[in-house]
Amino acid sequence: MTLTQAEKAAVVTIWAKVATQADAIGAESLERLFFSYPQTKTYFPHFDLSQGSTQLRGHGSKVMNAIGEAVKNIDDIRGALAKLSELHAYILRVDPVNFKLLSHCILCSVAARYPNDFTPEVHAAWDKFLSSVSSVLTEKYR
Amino acid sequence: MVLSGNDKTNVKGVFSKIGGHAEEYGAEALERMFATYPQTKTYFPHFDVAPGSAQVKAHGKKVAAALVEAANHIDDIATALSKLSDLHAQKLRVDPVNFKLLGQCFLVVVAIHNPSVLTPEVHASLDKFLCAVGNVLTAKYR
């Protein structure tokens, strides 16, 4: 699946806004993930998952930074996230289905904060983009 | 997901062992899919989907031929199946989840008829190959 020029533009434009609240959106997306899909908490036995926890914020930041890197290098997401891809393949081994769940939560958080910008076309572009990121992060699993 | 050298060798090996039986396997895979996952029948309202139906046999041949084509061009499945990819994107629009189901059934059929061929390594390679084919056929959906 490849992103069209229009889709890349949509992703980059929205990112400019999202980036201003990246940490908060990251933390909120994880909260939504753990709330709606409690099974995802099993990957974080070492975390304090209560709302507003420092670890949650810290991890949300990491996730959003990686997404920011992917946006900046949207023509070569694979290159930009190569190390993260290996991390997920050899150490973290998060079941691929969970990437869909987190992507969905990120979309919800972004939509909630930028309702006027989140048109159907932008929604589709962001969904494709996050799917691409997820593919890259799981492609070295086997 | 990328097919390693070993994967490609394994896949080619499987198809050369299957040889002329590929068409029967295609038909049997469809039969099993319709039996185990009845929702897949909704894509074939114009077919007689009873076991042994001539239409299912003919369709099985088509499916098998495509898989053989992909295996023969395993270094560039996207180009080999480009027309089929367009067909699925623009006309057939089979929900991507169903490719996994048919792939599973095909694996089962290969396993039943060639138990000694499907070692764990070969099984994994064939599964990766079938996933890759599914990805190509759904790549142009959006």
Write up what this structure looks like.
The complex is a heterodimer of chains A (142) and B (142). Chain A has 142 residues and is mostly helical. Chain A has a single domain (5-138), classed as Globins (Globin-like, Orthogonal Bundle), CATH 1.10.490. In chain A, 70% of the residues lie in helices and 0% in strands. Chain A is built from seven helices and no strands. In chain A, helix 6 (97-113) packs antiparallel against helix 7 (120-138). The longest helix of chain A is centred in the middle third of the chain and has 19 residues, at 54-72. By secondary structure, chain B is mainly α. Chain B has one domain (5-138): Globins (Globin-like, Orthogonal Bundle). Chain B contains seven helices and no strands. Chain B is globular and about 40 Å long. Chain B starts with a helix and ends with a helix. The model of chain B has no long low-confidence stretch (mean pLDDT 95). The chains are: A mainly alpha (142), B mainly alpha (142). The A-B interface holds A 1-2, 124, 128, 138-139, 141-142 and B 1-2, 124, 128, 138-139, 141-142.
Count up the domains of chain B: 1
Number of contiguous helices of chain B: 7
Termini separation of chain A comes to 20 Å
Query: Which percent range fits the helix content of chain B?
Result: 55-70%
CATH homologous superfamily identity of chain A = Globins
Query: So what's the CATH class of chain B?
Result: Mainly Alpha
What's the total number of strands of chain A?
A: 0
Instruction: Sum up the overall morphology of chain B in one term.
Output: globular
Unreliable segments of 5+ consecutive residues of chain A: none
Structural class of chain A: mainly alpha
Backbone structural class of chain B: mainly alpha
| Principal-axis shape of chain A | globular
Largest interface: A-B, 8 and 8 residues
**CATH architecture type of chain B:** Orthogonal Bundle
N-to-C order of helices and strands of chain B? HHHHHHH
Query: Using DSSP, what is the number of strands of chain B?
Result: 0
Average pLDDT confidence of chain A is 94
Keywords (chain B): Heme, Iron, Metal-binding, Oxygen transport, Transport
InterPro entries (chain B): Globin, Globin-like_sf, Globin/Proto, Hemoglobin_a-typ, Hemoglobin_oxygen_transport, Hemoglobin_pi
GO biological process, one term (chain B): hydrogen peroxide catabolic process
GO molecular function, one term (chain B): haptoglobin binding
